[in-house]
Structures are given as structure tokens and as C-alpha cells.
Amino acid sequence: MDHLLREHAPISDLAWKLIDDEARERLVDSLGARRLVDFNGPMGWQRSSVNLGRVDRLDNGPVPGVTTRRRRVLPMLEARAEFTVSREELFDADRGAVDVDFDDLAEAALRVARLENIAVFNGWDAAGIVGIIPSSPHRPVPRVADFADYPQRVAQAVEALLNHGIGGPYALAVSPDDHTAIVETTEHGGYPLFEHVRAILDGPMVRVPGLVGGVVLSQRGGDFLFESGQDLSVGYRHHDADSVRLYIEQTFTFHIATPEAAIALVSSQSLER
């Protein structure tokens, strides 16, 4: 028996497959941050921390003449988003229904993906995670509201990284709103804006729910490290006559080797505040 307790749920193998497939589909579209950083793992549910390779000296130890140091580690964060599935819907799935109502699952998947994205890009003090944006030493690159000169702003960000010895290729992480604006915008002559942006980056543009604005970051590897304990999995909580309570859960942490390998793109209004 594992801690997910799936074998105790009143769910058939077929319905479990539908749930897992739906969760995977929803998560793949929303987990933008992990597509742009180094992913290490999964290392399992029991992994509780990540070794940082550093120590803190402990003064005034209990025995004179003995030098002591404490190893630095980064604890794993447990993240869980619960959702409910109707038992009638599960019965219909067993009968062959292809339009099973998984709306609550979809919302839970987006919540847990947003948390992961926010932790990676903005950080989370309580979890000991320093994000990419606050750790960057670069002044953010401003952009105009109508995205008319967005390629030039991306080029400025790339140039700033190059000037600090940060090689490419590069990627652009953007908020859902900015992603929509970029995809829908064409430059003079009808050339799609996103194609121009990708040509400058020599890498992908990725939609990241939970992010505000954009971030240009190097894809050379070794700069941003996502550590996965248990990767995203669906577990069982409890059930009654009408519904089954499930959850999406993972353990992870994140740390940065090269803070200068990323630079934010923000609106001019944000810089003025």
C-alpha cells in the first residue's frame, strides 16, 4: 500500500485511467515553469530535502576543541489540490461515456500548476524558495502596453544577458494575457509577432499561468534547478454515496545556481509604481 491509497477508492481501472489522462492533459498545458528549467527527479515521496553542498559553522559547541558544521539542505514542499468526482459520472465512464464531467479536476490541476509556476518565478519565502524574478540582478526591461515594440524589448533582454556572459539559446516565459496578445499581434507586413520573438530567442515562448509580465531566461542548462520528490500524482481522500474526494499532489523545491541568467519584462506602469 502506498500513501496515495488509490486501491481504497471505489473507482474502476478504466475510470482511474480516464482520471489520470485528464489530469495529465490539464497539467501539461499549465506547467510552464518546469519546461524552462532543469528538472531533476522524481526522487520519491520519502525524499525530504535537497543537499545544497554548503555548511554553516556552529560556534560554542559542547566540547572545546571540536569544530562543528551543519549541512545546508532545502526542504521539499508538499503541495496538494483536492477535487471531487461524482460517482454517477464514474459509473457512466464504466459504461463507455466519453464526456465525463471532470471540471473540478481541471480547476485543481490549474491551482497546483499555478502554485508551482509562482514558486519558480516569484519565489515563496515560507517554503525557502527564492524565485527567478526577485533573484535576478538585472533591471527589468519595460514594454509598451500595445506590444508594438515587443521584439525590440526581447532583443534588449537577450543583449543584457549576453553582456553578462550568459549564452543561449533563450526562452520567453509569459503570462496568459501577454501570450494571447503576442499570438494575436501581427507586425507591419502581416508577419506574426511571435515568430519574430522566437527568432530572436532561438528558443521557445511558453505560456505560464500565475506569472505576471514576462521573463527571458537562458536555456543553456545548469542555471535553474527544479527538484522533484514525488511528481504530480492523483490520490484518494474519501468517498460517500454521491461523490469521491480525490487530490493532485506533489513534492518539490527549487533553487538557482546563476541568478543573472534571467531578466524580467514588465509594463512601464509597473516600473513607475
Can you put this structure into words, describing what you see?
- It is found in: Encapsulin nanocompartment.
- It holds the Pfam family Linocin_M18.
- The chain has 273 residues and is of the alpha/beta class.
- It has a single domain (6-272), classed as Major capsid protein gp5 fold (2-Layer Sandwich), CATH 3.30.2400.
- Helices cover 32% and strands 29% of the residues.
- The strands form 3 sheets. Strands 1, 4, 9, 10 and 11 form a 5-stranded mixed sheet that branches. It has a 5-stranded mixed sheet with strand order 5-12-8-6-7.
- Strand 10 and strand 11 form a beta hairpin.
- Helix 1 (13-30) runs parallel beside helix 3 and helix 5 (150-163) runs parallel beside helix 7 (193-201).
* Helical content class: 25-40%
Summarize the biggest pleated sheet: 5 strands, mixed
Mean pLDDT: 93
CATH fold title: Major capsid protein gp5 fold
> Low-confidence stretches at least 5 residues in length (pLDDT < 50)?
none
Order of helices and strands: HEEEEHHHEHEHHEEEEEEH
Portion in strands: 25-35%
Question: How many β-strand stretches?
Answer: 12
Q: What is the domain total for the residues?
A: 1
